[in-house]
Amino acid sequence: MGNICSISLPADRIVSCFWDGTTEHANYLRKLPENLVELGTACERLRELRNDVKRKVDIAEREQLQPLDQVQGWLSRVETLETQVTQLIGDGTEEVEKKCLGGCCPRHCRTRYKLGKRVARKLKEVDILMSQRPSDVVAERLPSPRVGERPSQATVGMNSRIGKVWSSLHQEQVGIIGLYGLGGVGKTTLLTQINNVFTKRTNDFDFVIWATVSKNVNLENIQDDIWKTIGFCDDKWKSKSRDEKSTSIWRVLSEKRFVLLLDDLWERLDLSDVGVPFQNKKNKIAFTTRSEEVCAQMEADKKIKVEGLTWTESWELFRMKLGEDTLDFHPEIPELAQAVAQECCGLPLVLTTMGRAMACKKTPEEWKYAIKVLQSSASKFPGMGDKVFPLLKYSYDCLPTEVSRSCFLYCSLYPEDYKMSKLSLISRWICEGFLDEFDDMEGAQNQGYNIIGTLIHACLLEEGDVDYQVKLHDVIRDMALWIACETGKEQDKFLVQAGRTLTEAPEVARWTGPKRISLMYNQIGKLRGSPNCPNLSTLFLENSSLNMITDGFFQFMPNLRVLDLSYNSITELPRGISNLVSLQYLNLARTNIKELPIELKNLDKLKCLILFSMLQLSSIPEQLISSLSMLQVIDMFNSRISDDSEALVQEFESLKYLRSLGVTITSASAFKRLLSSEKLRSCISALCLKNFNGSSSLNLTSLNNVKRFRNLHISNCSSLEDLEIDWAWEGKETTKSNYLNSKVSSHNSFHSLGWLRVERCSRLKDLTWLVFAPNLKMLIISDCDQMQEVIGTGKCGESAKNGENLSPFVKLHELRLVGLPQLKSIFWNALPFIYLNRIHVRNCPLLKKLPLCANSAKGNRIVIAGHKKWWNEVEWEDEATQNVFVPCFVPVGE
């Protein structure tokens, strides 16, 4: 302690010993308390300004604007400075409170000095940030990404569809692609997936643009969708006129490569009105639509039909929406769930709707009830009547005429999966009075075919397995019945219980209101009573196991126009059928009726009488046919008639309005009489030549150029050796081969003939005249013991010897050869068989070679059926041909 020295000096001397006593430095010490207060106040003002700017930025971001970098930087610097100032004020306040040296000096003057200096500098930094405050514009709208990913759910079965569209988009010759299909099949989902593929794969396009079109087209909305991708959809853009927007879009896109994806087209969209340039196919447009016709109107380079899911895909999607917990809850549920999924017929929309609806159903009874509802009244199933059917109904609402809508609803009278004959459907439409645009039958038929085309293009009808049939998708049929039975002006006008396995007809009281009743494909057996049906126009009873109809059943049906009793076991018609005074269409095909009642004479409005394949029919009252003076169509093809067919031909001649005739002829004299009448010859649509005796040849030349002649059946003509055609040709310079080729390509041939069946003609050796039938679709030859060649080399002369380009059976779909022990050749060269899908050969031991090469039937799924022994002995053109067709073989029983 004694060593400590104490020295006393004034305070200002102490300070001056350490620092320069200038005013600025002195102020760091003297004004620290005041500066701290000023810094807090300045920082509060800066914080308020920061909050204002931040609020503006938040609003801009909600409007999808991008904050400016300088604004983001300023906010960041303010935040950093605010943290520093808060800490500094805390330190400074603590230091001011710790005073010494008589209240003037801190314990450590150097610390106070540094603190004062830092406060002064922060004041300057606050002033600088205040002066750098952002202007009112704090953000800007940036261009959208080159392609934006669209929200999508997990999908099933899309990979192959995506691949098909993706490859089409990259084909040089393809600029516009139309994706069409019925509602709910997944077109929008597919287009969405294509859009998202562009976000993942490298490509050369500057823009991938999505625009929704919809039923009520609004060009400005489409333009706005486009501009969101290629520009800035701000107030300036919104204030532009449609033409100005079109010009702006054109100016940008004309210098870029782009893909335009248009969803939900219902009619042609004029791209130039929107402003989309399309001078070349380097740019691509893909669109979705329910109408194939829209694809044509948009001049699509490629049309792709979006089909429903396969069963495997359908079941996967249904399980996904149902959930495994429900599926595993009870051992009966998986099988019942498959039954429900099958009712969806591959439509993703329906599978999704039904899967979700059934996700909470965990008892077999609930599932069985659901199946019953779906099969009897699908609209009552949750989500169907209020969501699915209204969506599908848009296609119906967009049909161009009331007639086309009526024709569509008419198709719902048939059972599920029924293949409707186009010609039969049109005949019924004519007799219902739908097709009255033309007075003549041909014009009305053309109108009918046009309507069928319209319905197919709208994806409301589908092509059948063969080109003369159409079918109705099960869900579309349910939608049609919903329209016909539950909505609009047709409500309660349809009573449809087709294919319901009924054993009794609906009670009589239910027959009073409906205009159309269909009880097809049931097991009713008997029709009793006399239902009062003042409104009934259509009654379908085909294939209902009927064996009896009481006499009074038709008594109170004054407006019935179409009656179908075909494919039933009835042996007679009730006498009361004479009360059907409005009847225009009567179908008795394939019934067991033995005699037509004379009471049919009262049906004086009858236009179509269908009697084909009535194998028990033995008698038609004299003058009955001729008394039906309004008949336009009569079909007695392949019916058994013991009466004089020559007399019947004479009655046909008296029918003034006859336009289509299907007839069975049982004698050479009747055949000659038929062909001698130019009127009847021009009407022939189907001809059955049966049980001819004593005629070794028949001349078919006069049947060429009969444009309605589609079906020929030759049966049990045991003495027939040759079917003659006029082989004569003019000019000494003309070879037979040139003549054949010219005849086949000219109008002088059987261009309309589509079906030929020849059976039990034991002396017939060939059918060479078929070179004149280029559009033949089906050929059946059976039990002709001496048939050696289908197309004879001898009759074709030089063509056969020189191997010249004669190519029959171009349109053939099916070839059946059965019981031909001498047959050695079908044709001497391999044929292209472009449409062939089936060959059936049985009991033809000498037929060692088929007219096939490696390129025949290319692209077809062809089936070749026959005995295994015969197949093992087939000789092939070459190894390549064998490799192509060996997998096609299906063995049949010996």
TrEMBL record:
One biological process term in Gene Ontology: defense response
Protein name in UniProt: Disease resistance protein
Family designation: Belongs to the disease resistance NB-LRR family.
Lineage: Eukaryota, Viridiplantae, Streptophyta, Embryophyta, Tracheophyta
Classification via InterPro entries: Apaf_helical, At4g27190-like_LRR, Leu-rich_rpt, Leu-rich_rpt_typical-subtyp, LRR_dom_sf, LRR_R13L4/SHOC2-like, NB-ARC, P-loop_NTPase
Highest taxon in the source lineage: Eukaryota
UniProt source species: Vitis rotundifolia
Stored PANTHER family: NB-ARC DOMAIN-CONTAINING PROTEIN, NB-ARC DOMAIN-CONTAINING PROTEIN-RELATED
Molecular function as annotated in GO: ADP binding; ATP binding
Keywords tagged on the record: ATP-binding, Leucine-rich repeat, Nucleotide-binding, Plant defense, Repeat
Gene3D superfamilies: Helical domain of apoptotic protease-activating factors, P-loop containing nucleotide triphosphate hydrolases, Ribonuclease Inhibitor, Winged helix-like DNA-binding domain superfamily/Winged helix DNA-binding domain
Domain Disease resistance protein winged helix: residue ranges: 413-480
